[in-house]
């Protein structure tokens, strides 16, 4: 095992594509916008959200398909919004996200993201989130999402 090769591989993957100063000047909600830009809400009802996204090239990995981290971010962001449809009054914090990656989505492919709230208690909520190909319904990823919904501190 060549540890130096592992180190160089990880460090080179983090090479600057923009200056640190430029990146540090981005607004705090930049990441959410980066992930969600182009998302459309197709259906919204109590305990359920159904969205469509045409996979943008910016969310692809080195293999030219939807990056696993982008998938997890979509699960977090859409799953969080689903809790508001169940009456949650706080943004909360993720406690656990378990994702099964089952297929790939490619650039310009339309996908559906469906979040269903299984339970929204006073302090903890549980939802399922599924990403699937809009054409044919093949599942890309399935997730179980647990989130802390307790009241935010008023300090």
From TrEMBL:
Keyword Nuclease: no
Ranges for domain Thioesterase: 65-139
InterPro entries reported in the protein's UniProt record: ACOT13 (IPR039298), HotDog_dom_sf (IPR029069), PAAI_dom (IPR003736), Thioestr_dom (IPR006683)
SUPFAM superfamilies (UniProt xref): Thioesterase/thiol ester dehydrase-isomerase (SSF54637)
Keywords from the UniProt entry: Hydrolase
GO molecular function: fatty acyl-CoA hydrolase activity
Keyword Hydrolase: yes
Domain of life: Eukaryota
A Pfam family this chain is assigned to: 4HBT
Family membership: Belongs to the thioesterase PaaI family.
Protein name: Thioesterase domain-containing protein
């Amino acid at each position: 095992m060549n540890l130096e090769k592992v180190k160089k591989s990880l460090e080179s993957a983090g090479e600057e594509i923009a200056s640190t100063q430029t990146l540090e000047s981005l607004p705090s909600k930049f990441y959410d916008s980066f992930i969600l830009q182009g998302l459309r809400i197709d259906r919204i009802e109590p305990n359920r959200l159904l969205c469509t996204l045409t996979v943008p090239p910016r969310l692809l990995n080195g293999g030219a398909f939807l990056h696993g981290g982008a998938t997890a971010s979509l699960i977090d962001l859409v799953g969080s919004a689903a809790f508001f449809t169940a009456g949650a009054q706080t943004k909360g914090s993720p406690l656990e996200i378990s994702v099964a990656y089952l297929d790939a989505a490619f650039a310009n492919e339309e996908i559906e993201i469906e979040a269903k709230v299984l339970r929204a208690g006073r302090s903890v909520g549980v939802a399922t989130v599924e990403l699937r190909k809009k054409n044919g319904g093949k599942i890309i990823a399935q997730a179980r999402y647990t989130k802390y919904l307790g009241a935010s501190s008023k300090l």
